Amino acid sequence: MTIFIASAFSKNKMGGNKAGVCLYGDKLEYFTPAEEVPLCGHATIASFVVMRDKSMLGKNEYTIETKSGSVSVILDSTMVFMKQSKPLFYETLSKR
């Protein structure tokens, strides 16, 4: 099994937030050292960077299924964008 390390949110391929990417299967799944998680933004971006660099993508917009629901990903010539749902707030803190 080949695992790639890609940096999401980086400039000129420097810095950013690293994610391990394994191109196996047809669905994105996200794992921490302790458990599987429903969604990981930087890993989504990193996965599409790796797939683009490996010439595995043929279009500029994708909808992927994750355990937290559908996510839209848009690619341009240099960047990868992920559309996110509006956040849900469960409680409001006072300003005091």
Radius of gyration equals 15 Å
The percentage helix is 10-25%
| Uncertain runs | none
Biggest sheet, open or closed, and with what strands and sense? 3 strands, antiparallel
Mean pLDDT: 89
Structural shape: globular
Q: Do you know the CATH topology?
A: Diaminopimelate Epimerase, Chain A, domain 1
Lateral arrangement of strands in the main beta sheet: 5-6-7
Which class do the helix and strand fractions yield? Answer: alpha+beta
Task: Tell me the span between the first and last alpha carbons.
Answer: 53 Å
Strand content: 25-35%
Provide a brief overview of the structure:
The chain is α+β, with helices and mostly antiparallel strands. The chain has a single domain (3-82), classed as Diaminopimelate Epimerase, Chain A, domain 1.
Describe what you observe in this structure:
With 96 residues, the protein is of the alpha+beta class. The chain has a single domain, classed as Diaminopimelate Epimerase, Chain A, domain 1, CATH 3.10.310.10. The protein has one helix and seven strands. The chain has one helix at residues 41-53, and strands at 3-8, 17-22, 30-31, 36-37, 61-66, 69-75, 80-82. Strands 5-6-7 form a three-stranded antiparallel β-sheet, covered by helices on one side. A two-stranded antiparallel ribbon has the order 1-2. The longest helix has 13 residues, at 41-53.
Secondary structure: elements and pairs:
Layout: E1 3-8, E2 17-22, E3 30-31, E4 36-37, H1 41-53, E5 61-66, E6 69-75, E7 80-82
Looking at this protein, list some descriptive labels.
single chain, 96 residues, alpha+beta, Diaminopimelate Epimerase, Chain A, domain 1, three-stranded antiparallel sheet, 1 helix, 14% helix, 33% strand
